[in-house]
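Figure S7 source data.
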Amino acid sequence: MDMDRPETDGRRIVRQVIGGKSVAASSGSEIDVVCPSDGLVFASIPASDAEDVDRAVRAAAAAFETGPWPRMPAVERGRLLTRLCHLVEKNGDELAALESRDTGKPARQGKADVAATLRYYEFYGGAADKIHGDTLPFLDGYTALTLREPHGVVGGIIPWNYPLQILARVAGAALAMGNTLVIKPAEDASLTAVRMAELAREAGFPDGVFNVVTGYGGEAGAALSAHPLVDYVTFTGSPATGTAIQQAAALNNRGVTMELGGKSPQIVFADADLDKALPVLVNAIIQNGGQTCSAGSRVLVERPVYEAVASALAERFARLVAGPHDADLDLGALINPRQKARVAGMVADAEKAGIPVLARGAIRPDVRAGGYYFAPVLFGTVDPSATIAREEVFGPVLTLFSFDGEEEAVRLANGTDYGLVAGIWTKDGARQHRMAKRVRAGQVFVNGYGAGGGIELPFGGFKRSGHGREKGFEALYDMSATKTIVFNHG
Ligand code: ADP
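Tokens for the predicted adenosine-5'-diphosphate complex:
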């Protein structure tokens, strides 16, 4: 395996995969790979620049133009994706451990990510030969039909929070449709993406179909989003970076899918089953240390049960413990010192603004000093105009609000510039329908919450949360273009 090449100092020297070959950056530069649990370097990845990106894009373009990939029967492409699913299963323990070490996430979250990842390859492997165009009613003497064609080279820029899963949802849909792929994983968490490209080679994907170029966002990522031979760009990450990537892609007038995070509300009505809701409300913000696009970071509670919900959540928050990934506690470390400082800064500002802290979790006392731990914080009651009420924290920070009735619940829920996911907790069936329709979010869960799995469920945002849809069958439409063919046969 390319990944296990220990140097004298014990670091693994990882090579990116371009055109089916494991290669270093052309400049020879490397980026240290740090484990967030202890801050220690345990590997290095190539620090690629525009030249490496150009090589990868040209390899992907050649595989698209002259290789077998887009001309292969869809069922054959599907079989390769299914083979990749089986390789993920076979190498599941290694992938889960690597993901957890690279990102600091608890071991069981690494395992959950592997389970979702293999489902993506399974789903899109099965879907490859089930998507098709239409025949259209048209003028007498004509037959009109549509084909769904791949864009060509898809450039995928991946964040560090769920590298395996987000790569799988991009790669599954893009490859099922016959595109070729250049992935730029996040500089903070690239190891499993490289490993997936190695597994794709083992599965038998033709060279150049599945490329992974590692490097910094401002360098390799920017070069990928601006490359004129990239036909479509897909990105998951922060709104500011999403804007930069869209501007770059716009210079080539290429299409984009943007998944840019959220400030997702969970709305708890007085008639809700609180025993069912409470653990879900906590998990939705604690999972992955709150570093989840779909984190349920705002809980809106109807006034009659506000005190009960606030004190039950405070009790649970006070029991939460952060610690090393292999200790498998409630949450791990945050990804890097910058993220920790950002979360800590937002929390400090909210406290300074007088927003009360209802509870804080703990950091296990014996953690390594170099780890990037941050204890969970529960804020309530929060003024909806406060920064902490409107901006994504991307950390284990929950804000509580109270409301009276449906109108105010809708106003608060829709009162941020985001619209990714929402949760609605009520036993009233008519209200469930009314609320689900009025809340502006790409996914709405009634008496539940969770987008992490849900491979089959279209996922994406309204407003600043982005545009385009990933997951499910719908992602296959984003990853293809409709061609209309008209026959005039008289
Ligand atoms: P963060 O700031 O937490 O790293 P980002 O949204 O900036 O989150 O990063 C998500 C992904 O976008 C990463 O793969 C990163 O390398 C990449 N990226 C960052 N800046 C740019 C950029 N200017 N152009 C293209 N990709 C970028």
